[in-house]
Design a protein that fits this description.
globular; Nucleotidyltransferase, domain 5; 14 helices; about 625 residues; 5 domains; alpha+beta; Actin, Chain A, domain 4; 5-stranded mixed β-sheet; about 35% helix; 6-stranded mixed β-sheet; about 25% strand
Length: about 625
């Protein structure tokens, strides 16, 4: 049996193991490693010299998948089956996505707070599935270039990513066949790439460390993060930005300008699609030239550097406003910033550099390739974890993930493996049955998706929950690992204040060999585990929908028409039959059909109830 070469005491891997750094981006993604000779981080490039892999996925009619450059042309020719910006969907609910605006591909429309799904044909994909396809492409590219298997990675995420989004990123890596050793913040990675926080930095030993502003403007997103770095510890003081603002908006501004300047004949949408590619060319050209000129179908397209600046200044102004907010949130002034780091391809635009330099009153750190800087920093973090970087102390870490059993026997991870100790994490849960007065809290350790494949550490019941409808109680469960490695699990019902806690020793009784075996099992069964998890989640959602629909019909029987009742009955029967078949897509399709049938009359009845309530309401004493 192959072994995973991990040092349990330090959490580092043996030095003969390649660990890559991955920047999983909204628009583009890339992978980097430490060069064996120079010991410097380098982005991996194919023979064409390009390191960037577009974060685009295309599904053809036969179910074949294209990722990256090969998928990009289909954004114009087959938009419904071509997924972009999957990163924006990570850990998001339907409500979150609705607020983000329209997408060309189909997002399953629902009013609850379930995590979002994307429908392509008759197949349903989670953002984890989609992101894993991009990571698989990066893994394949790295293995082709390095001529060796790549199984371990450090992946970066935005500083504002919440726990669900970070866990989704870990799951995507696992599904792609990668053991994700650490999830690190993108601004932290960028700072590492510039040498901040390392022993060689002159200010590292000062009491207050350094305060770094990381300005990250990509193709589709913008964020500004303020970090404090002291004694090798990176603390995010604040983060601000806009997940729907980036270099793509510069292109749109140019296209709108040309559409106004010229009276194009024919299909406006097709013109816009063609002009967008030319606009991107113009944007790059004007970074070093005063005039851009090109002919398109007999029309002359002109744009001066000055006109370009005028077009994009309102967009650039929004980023500066975000910088002001980030400073305010961190409780700092511009003078408190020691260094400004520029990240993202769109920071090449001269006006952006000028405005950021003027705002902070400092020279910018922009010497490292702006597209690659995050991945390069991730490679440095990977090298630290591999134990190849001397002079940096690694804090104690958790050797295996810690989590809870949820509906269907699933493992819900609260503390991923390699979390630094001491550490704390919490998450809210609720009841599944009306009047439920107790909740079983079962704590597990391991990397598999089903708790039956992991190691149970402790179990207790939170009792005395007041009788409430299902979904109303809010039970916050927190995991705290202290400096001695003792795990304290606390459960508290927030509405009533009822709480209970238990102490467990998560590492007790496990040898290095047992930990290695659990890690290896999780990698070997990753695809199988993720499929079982997806099926279990789909069945759990379906069972909940059947239950709530049945209750709603019983309560509002007289307000539902005969045709609506018949259609609902057929849809419920179809969903019930689908539950007996181990086909996730079938269960999700039948769940969607029942939703689409019941949603219109449910909304009608709720609207009628609200109107009736408003008509009967009174103000003051009766």
């Amino acid at each position: 049996m192959a072994k995973i070469p991990i040092n349990i005491a330090t959490g580092s891997l043996q030095k003969d193991e390649i660990i890559v750094g991955i920047d999983l981006g909204t628009t583009n993604s890339l992978i980097a490693v430490i060069h064996p000779d120079s010991k410097k981080p380098v982005a991996l490039k194919e023979h064409n010299g390009i390191s960037l892999v577009p974060s685009v996925i295309h599904f053809d009619e036969s179910g074949n998948v294209l990722v990256g450059e090969d998928a990009k042309p289909y954004l114009q020719t087959d938009a419904a089956n071509t997924i972009f910006s999957a990163k924006r969907l990570m850990g998001k609910t339907y409500k979150d996505v609705k607020e983000a605006g329209e997408l060309a591909y189909k997002i399953i429309d629902d009013d609850d707070n379930k995590l979002v799904k994307v429908q392509v044909g008759n197949t349903f994909y989670s953002p984890v599935d989609l992101s894993s396809l991009i990571l698989k492409e990066l893994k394949k590219q790295a293995e082709h270039i390095l001529k060796t298997p790549v199984n371990k990675a450090v992946i970066t995420v935005p500083a504002y990513f919440n726990d669900a989004q970070r866990q989704a990123t870990r799951d995507a890596g696992k599904l792609a066949g990668l053991d994700v050793l650490r999830i690190i913040n993108e601004p932290t990675a960028a700072s590492l790439a510039y040498g901040f926080g390392t022993t060689g930095n002159s200010k590292q030993g000062s009491d207050n460390g350094q305060t770094i502003a990381v300005y990250d403007l990509g193709g589709g997103t913008f964020d500004i993060s303020i970090l404090n770095i002291a004694n090798g510890i990176f603390e995010v003081l604040s983060t601000h930005g806009n997940t729907l603002l980036g270099g793509d908006d510069f292109d749109t501004a140019i296209v709108n300008y040309w559409m106004t300047e010229n009276k194009f004949e024919g299909d406006e949408i097709k013109h816009r699609q063609a002009l967008r590619l030319i606009a991107e060319e113009a944007k790059k050209h004007l970074s070093a030239n005063e005039i851009f000129e090109k002919e398109y179908k007999g029309y002359k397209l002109n744009l001066s550097h000055a006109a370009f600046n005028e077009l994009i200044k309102p967009i650039a102004d929004k980023t500066i406003v975000a910088c002001k907010h980030a400073l305010k949130d961190a409780g700092l002034n511009k003078q408190d910033i020691d260094e400004v780091v520029m990240v993202g391809g769109s920071t090449r635009v001269p006006l952006i550099k000028q405005m950021v330099r003027d705002f902070f009153g400092k020279q910018l750190n922009d010497s490292v390739h702006p597209d690659e800087v995050v991945a390069l920093g991730a490679a440095i973090q990977a090298d630290i974890l591999a134990g190849n970087t001397t002079g940096l102390l690694l804090l104690d870490i958790t050797p295996l993930s810690l989590g809870l059993e949820t509906m269907g026997g699933l493992m819900d991870v609260l503390l991923p493996r390699n979390s630094k100790i001491p550490t704390k994490a919490s998450r809210q849960y609720t009841t599944y049955k009306d009047g439920q007065s107790a909740m079983k809290i079962a704590v597990y350790q391991g990397e598999r998706d089903m708790v039956k494949d992991n190691r149970r550490l402790a179990e207790f019941n939170l009792t005395g929950i007041p009788g409430m409808p299902a979904g109303l109680p809010k039970v916050e469960i927190s995991f705290l690992i202290n400096a001695d490695g003792i795990l304290v699990v606390n459960a508290k019902e927030l509405r009533s204040g009822i709480e209970q806690s238990v102490e467990v020793k998560p590492q007790y009784g496990l040898t290095d060999e047992e930990v290695e075996k659990m890690l290896l099992d999780s990698m070997q069964h990753a695809k199988e585990d993720m499929d079982i998890r997806a099926l279990t989640e789909a069945k759990t959602e379906a069972e909940q929908l059947l239950s709530t629909t049945e209750k709603f019909i019983q309560k509002n029987f007289s307000s539902i028409s005969k045709d609506e009742l018949t259609a609902t009955s057929h849809a419920m029967q179809a969903l019930q039959l689908a539950l007996d078949m181990d086909d996730k897509n079938l269960v999700q399709a039948k769940t969607q059909e029942l939703n689409e049938i019941s949603k219109p009359y449910a909304e009608r009845i709720m609207d009628e109830a609200i109107q009736k309530s408003m008509q009967g309401s009174k103000i003051g004493p009766a």
